[in-house]
Design goal:
Elements (H helix, E strand, L loop, with lengths): L4 H13 L7 H17 L6 H6 L6 H29 L9 H10 L5 H32 L4 H17 L2 H51 L1
Helix pairs in contact: 1-4, 4-5, 5-6, 6-7
């Protein structure tokens, strides 16, 4: 469906600014995009710092630059590719959403793909549970001490079970609300520390330029 990509991109742009399927118009599209974007890559929540803090590097700035690639790859590349598949296969407009819509789109091109997609979704869900469990445990240990992490594990397992028996829409809405409570203090911290980060970034690039200059002189 390569030939249908230009019209698909046009549809994406048109629906972003003059939507017909989303309540709230362009603002509704923006809100939904932020909700699903944060849900997919977690940028701005403060969780990425936990994952990248265990990296073996002497340059925190360099690790931060690497971390910036994650939202780009997940949202700009992967999510847009999925959107293009849904539109170019004519699946867009079906009375489906989420993984069911993506599965139908892939099935129209490759009949065997829904099985593989189902396995991918299960692995994605499992990896997400493990990752968020680690994040939460580190937060809990920092606030209440390592000795009490067993309480967090019990609470986390209880939430997993609750999520399987509660209405999916309610679970997603609750998750969005919790993500918002994480983002607000974290974004405030980012704003307050932005000056220090900018100073460290300038220092990093200055040292890199000096190193490059020294290597050219040696040659």
């Amino acid at each position: 469906n390569f030939g249908a990509i230009p019209s698909a991109l046009s549809t994406i742009i048109q629906e972003a600014f003059s939507p017909t399927a989303v309540e709230g118009g362009a603002i509704g599209v923006l809100v939904q995009g932020i909700r699903r974007g944060v849900f997919s890559h977690g940028a701005g929540l403060g969780t990425a710092a936990i994952a990248h803090a265990v990296a073996r590097t002497q340059e925190p700035i360099r690790e931060g630059i690497i971390a910036m690639l994650e939202p780009f790859i997940v949202t700009v590349i992967i999510c847009n590719l999925t959107a293009l598949v849904i539109i170019t296969t004519g699946t867009y407009g079906e009375d489906l959403s989420g993984s069911a819509l993506a599965s139908l789109a892939f099935e129209r091109v490759m009949a065997w793909s829904p099985g593989i997609l189902a396995v991918i979704i299960v692995l994605f869900g499992l990896s997400t549970v493990i990752t968020w469990s680690y994040y939460g445990e580190r937060y809990w240990a920092y606030l209440l001490g390592e000795s009490s992490t067993v309480l967090f594990k019990g609470l986390f397992l209880g939430c997993i079970f609750g999520g399987t028996v509660v209405n999916l829409e309610s679970v997603v809405d609750f998750s969005d609300m919790m993500l918002l409570t994480m983002a607000l203090p974290n974004l405030l911290g980012c704003l307050l520390l932005s000056g220090q980060v900018a100073e460290d970034l300038q220092n990093y690039w200055h040292r890199k330029r000096q190193e490059a200059k020294g290597k050219r002189q040696e040659v």
